[in-house]
Specification:
mainly beta
Length: about 170
């Protein structure tokens, strides 16, 4: 309580980071919760039994998930250019429990996408060059540590602490 009061009473300016300009972005942001009895992206406080383990594989598919729209002088949509044709993703993960209180998980996403034919048309329309978006790649490696702290009977109310670390693989 004293630490919280001291932190709230300090009157120092906050400084935001100025990251370098990055013109790329992810069209696939889904990351499944890793562990026993998880609900898609919702992580529960449950951990596996001692040396209990599991693995999972999530698949995803998107058709034309990224398009560019050109606008004319009257702010009317001139033409739609789908950039990415198909996007397939797979997320592989595994986890193991220790002492009925801890869980260690490791996960890696793999992506494959194809470039739509209208990509070259768009470059001709706006001028310029850019690398294509065809091919496969791996996402960031996720290392996850969870510690069960407290739970009541019948698993109705539980509390756990979780730490997630990511490591760039192919950037």
């Amino acid at each position: 309580l004293l630490v919280v009061a001291l932190a709230l009473s300090s009157n120092r300016p906050a400084y935001a980071q100025n990251p370098p300009l990055d013109r790329s972005f992810d069209i696939q942001l889904y990351e499944p919760a890793m562990g026993v009895r998880q609900l898609l992206t919702l992580e529960t406080a449950r951990v596996p039994n001692h040396l209990g383990w599991g693995a999972g594989l999530h698949f995803g598919y998107m058709n034309s998930p990224l398009s560019v729209y050109l606008v004319d002088q009257n702010d009317d949509l001139q033409e739609r250019y789908p950039i990415v044709g198909n996007h397939i993703s797979a997320y592989l993960y595994g986890f193991i429990g220790f002492m009925k209180r801890f869980q260690l998980s490791l996960g890696i996403p793999v992506y494959y996408q194809t470039q739509n034919d209208s990509y070259d048309e768009l470059l001709g329309e706006i001028g310029g060059t850019a690398p294509g978006v065809d091919g496969a790649t791996m996402g960031d490696l996720r290392l996850h540590f969870k510690s069960f702290i407290y739970g009541l009977a019948k698993n109705q109310h539980n509390l756990a602490a979780s730490l997630m670390l990511t490591f760039p693989i192919l950037h």
